[in-house]
Design brief:
The structure is a single chain. About 40% of the residues lie in helices and about 15% in strands. By secondary structure, it is α/β, with parallel strands linked by helices. The protein folds into 2 domains: about 140 residues, Aspartate Aminotransferase, domain 1 (Alpha-Beta Complex), CATH 3.90.1150; about 250 residues, Aspartate Aminotransferase, domain 2 (3-Layer(aba) Sandwich). The strands form 4 sheets. Strands 2-8-7-6-5-3-4 form a 7-stranded mixed beta sheet, sandwiched between helices. Helix 1 runs antiparallel to helix 8 and helix 2 packs parallel to helix 8. It is globular. It binds pyridoxal-5'-phosphate.
């Protein structure tokens, strides 16, 4: 039996490692297997050189000084290090501003900081009936700032509704008020044009597996400031990464990370245009097949610049997202529930937009990426339309 694999439409969750990235990594599992800290012999020095070369290449793509890039195991660790590392070092009472639609790896460490005595304001985004749904306006951010605000965390692009935040304006506010700004840029790096030197954030997290690189490797950028930003490490040991993150460096991962970042940066505009075109065609087909049965979650279709090129988040009028996905084994997509918990909770992002629990549960997230083809789009659309019609009809018969 020849069963074709499901069409992958979950590129916000992870991306396929690009074969060119795998190829770049291979020698570092084989002949160049040294520990990058063992610089007393050729194996170690070759590994060290590869790490520093990768750091420089990543930094060059993102317009950063190489020494501001610290390697971690991924964005979860980078977010924890930025938030806990900065605030534990600060170690004085203060106020934190973040958004209610951050990833859990931002929200959870902020809750830890709250339990240690920090005051926290979680900003609500523009509501679902606004054309700017999901956006945090600089005015709303400014209104949340207090004289004792020391730290802010605003994700550059959201992993569910794809909304892109006005980070430069928020960074200007932070700069003027002396607030340290962290941004979780995990969904944005490699997807939209970015010049980190102009972004104005002090701490920036991102991860290789969201940009066609390997899993288990990420980075935290600590911007060069006067006086320097000081962070307490979260992991102690051999003093790797200039004492900020101990642990033997993942040399193949780091080499793959650099190859992945370069591939994204060198082809960014053409790739994001191609992906956005496929996304637009998919939405057009779904709209013409399903009409009022679906609505868009997140920024309005008339504001394409506010949404990541590969993102689509759709709400069904009369269906549960999980049920629909169960009837679509030929497509790999994600529902509007956080399935990491045993009781799949409705997405906190969709709830923060002002959607009800049933509306959040009636939503699915589609993430298109580099390896999707134009041919897959009508196939995916037809599958979603047919499954929706079938389920709506059987629901109607069942009563
Ligand atoms: C916005 C965002 N931040 C952080 C993470 C966590 O990244 P990692 O899997 O590298 O720990 C993810 C991935 O799900 C994400 O989408």
């Amino acid at each position: 039996m020849n069963v074709s694999p499901p069409i992958y439409l979950d590129n916000h969750a992870t991306t396929r490692c690009d074969p060119r990235v795998v190829e770049a990594m291979l020698p570092f599992f084989g002949e160049t297997y040294g520990n990058a800290a063992s610089t007393t012999h050729a194996y170690g020095t070759l590994a060290r050189r590869a790490v520093e070369d990768a750091r420089e290449r990543i930094a060059a793509c993102l317009t950063l000084p190489a020494q501001s890039v610290y390697f971690t195991s991924g964005a979860t660790e980078s977010n924890n290090l930025a938030i806990q590392g900065y605030l534990r070092r600060w170690n004085r009472p203060g106020h934190i501003v973040a958004t209610a639609i951050e990833h859990s790896s931002v929200l959870e460490p902020i809750e830890v900081m709250r339990s240690l005595g920090y005051d926290v304001t979680l900003l609500s985004p523009e509501q679902h009936d606004s054309p700017l749904a999901g956006r945090i306006s600089p005015e709303a951010f400014l209104a949340a700032v207090r004289p004792d605000t020391v730290f802010a965390s605003v994700g550059l692009a959201n992993n569910e509704i794809g909304v892109i935040q006005p980070l430069r304006q928020i960074a200007e506010i932070c700069r003027a008020k002396g607030i340290v700004l962290h941004t979780d840029a995990t969904q944005a790096v490699g997807k939209i044009p970015l010049d980190f030197s102009e972004l104005g954030a002090d701490l920036i997290s991102f991860s290789a597996h969201k940009l066609y690189g390997p899993k288990g490797i990420g980075a935290l950028v600590v911007a060069k400031r006067t006086p320097p930003l000081r962070l307490t490490p979260m992991i102690f040991g051999g003093g790797h990464e200039r004492g900020l993150r101990s642990g033997t460096l993942n040399v193949p991962g780091i080499v793959g990370f650099a190859a992945a970042v370069e591939l994204c940066c060198h082809n960014l505009q053409a790739e994001s245009d191609r992906i956005a075109l496929m996304r637009d065609r998919l939405f057009d087909l779904l709209k013409s097949g399903l009409g009022e049965e679906i609505a868009l979650n997140g920024p309005s279709w008339e504001r394409p610049g506010l949404r990541l090129p590969g993102n689509l988040n759709i709400r069904f009028r009369r269906l549960d997202g999980e049920t629909l996905l169960l009837h679509l084994p030929q497509l790999a997509m994600s529902s509007g529930s956080a399935c990491s918990s045993a009781t799949a909770k409705p997405s906190h992002v969709l709830l923060a937009l002002g959607l009800s629990e049933p509306e959040a549960r009636a939503s699915i997230r589609i993430g298109l990426g580099r390896f999707n083809t134009e041919q897959e789009i009508p196939i995916a659309a037809a599958a979603i339309i047919n499954a929706t019609h079938k389920l709506v009809q059987s629901n109607a018969i069942l009563g």
